[in-house]
Amino acid sequence: MESIRTRRLSSWSGLVAFVLATGCTGFMAPRDPYPANPADPPPSSSVPRELEMVTLPPYVIEPPDILIINAVKIVPKPPHKIEPFDGLLIRVIGALPDQPIADAFSVDPEGQVDLGPTYGKVTVANLTTDEAQDAIRKHLSRILEEPEVSVSLAFSAGAQQIVGEHLVAMDGRVNLGTYGSVYVAGLTIEQAKAAVELKLSDYLQDPEVVVDVFAYNSKKYYIITQGGGFGDNLLQQPITGNETVLDALAALGGVSQVSSTKMWIARPAPNGVGCEQILPVNYEEITRGASTATNYQLMPGDRLFIAEDPMTRFDAVVTKFTRPFERLFGFVSLGTAMLNRITRFGLQTF
C-alpha cells in the first residue's frame, strides 16, 4: 500500500513539474511593443492586435466627413479693380521728410485713399493698381516735385474668405461659396488640398490653402449583439485608428445579460476581392488572463458579433409559444368564473 502511495505521489509530482516547466508563468519578461528605432514603422502583421497594431493607410475622404479648409493666400487675379475697403500698399519716393508715404492704406466707402492732411485724398475706386498709381502720382505732383509712386494690392475686401468647417456632401463635393464646389471624395488630404487650390486658381493668383479633417464621419465599425430571441442590437462607432476589441466592449458597456462570451470579428474582404475574414475572440483570455492574442485591432467596416446566451434564447422561444396560450387560458378561466358567479348568484345591479 505504501509503495502504491509513493508511486502516485511521484507521478503527481512529475506532472506538476512538467506543467510548470512548459506552461506560461508570471515571471516572463514583458514584450516591448515598440520598435527599437522610433522612426521605423511598426512591424507588419497579418492580423493586427493590441501589442502589434499597425497604422492605417492615408485617410480617404468620403461623405459625410467634415473638412477644415483655411485659405492663407487669397489674391485676386490681375487686372483687379479696386473696390471700397480694399487695402493698398503705397510707397512714395520724394515725399516730405517729416510726412513719408510708405504704408498700407484702406479705401474708404467713397472709394478714396487718404494720404494725410498735407496730401489729401485720391479717388481710386474701379481703377487697376497701375491706374491708381498714375492717379496718385498726378495728385502728388501738385505738391511734390517728380514723386515716384508704387501701388500694390495688400488685401482685397471683395474676395471671399475661405475659413472653417466644410461638409463633404452626398455628391462628394465641398462648397467654396462664390468660387464654386470641388469634388474631394476618394482623395487623400494632400490630393484634396491640390484639388481646392486648382479650383481657386481660376479666380485667385497662386492660392494657398490648408486642408485637414475636422470630423471622421465616414469610417466606422459595428457592434452587433444578439438579443436572445428579442431582436438584435446594432451600435456603430467611429474609427480613429487605435480601437481594439476591448475598446469596443467598453463602448458597449460590457457584455449584456442576454449575451454569451462567444464573439468574433467579421472583416469584409477589401474591395470585394478574396474571402471575408472571421476572427474568433476569446473573451475570457482577454479579460481574465490579460491575453492580447485575440484582442484584435479593429479596422473600418469590421463587425464585432456577440452571440446570444443559449438558455436565454431557449427561454424566449418557449415564452413566445406559451404566452398566447396563457393569455387564452386566462381569458377562458376568467370568463368561466364569471359565468359561474352569474349562474349561482344571478345578475346584480350595483
Helix/strand layout:
Layout: H1 2-22, E1 66-73, E2 87-93, E3 102-106, E4 112-114, E5 121-123, H2 129-140, E6 148-155, E7 165-167, E8 173-175, E9 181-183, H3 189-200, E10 208-215, E11 220-225, E12 233-238, H4 245-252, E13 259-267, E14 277-282, H5 283-287, E15 303-308, H6 310-345
What would your notes on this structure say?
Among the domains are: 66-75 and 159-215, 2-Layer Sandwich (wza like fold), CATH 3.30.1950; 87-155, 2-Layer Sandwich (wza like fold), CATH 3.30.1950.10; 220-308, Outer membrane lipoprotein wza fold like (Roll). The chain starts with a helix and ends in a 5-residue tail after the last helix. The chain contains six helices and 15 strands. Strand 2 and strand 3 (102-106) form a beta hairpin. Mean pLDDT is 82; it is low at 15-45. Helix content is 27%, strand content 24%. By secondary structure, it is α+β, with helices and mostly antiparallel strands. The protein has helices spanning 2-22, 129-140, 189-200, 245-252, 283-287, 310-345; strands spanning 66-73, 87-93, 102-106, 112-114, 121-123, 148-155, 165-167, 173-175, 181-183, 208-215, 220-225, 233-238, 259-267, 277-282, 303-308. The chain is elongated. Strands 12-11-15-13-14 form a five-stranded mixed β-sheet. The protein has a three-stranded antiparallel β-sheet with strand order 7-1-10, covered by helices on one side.
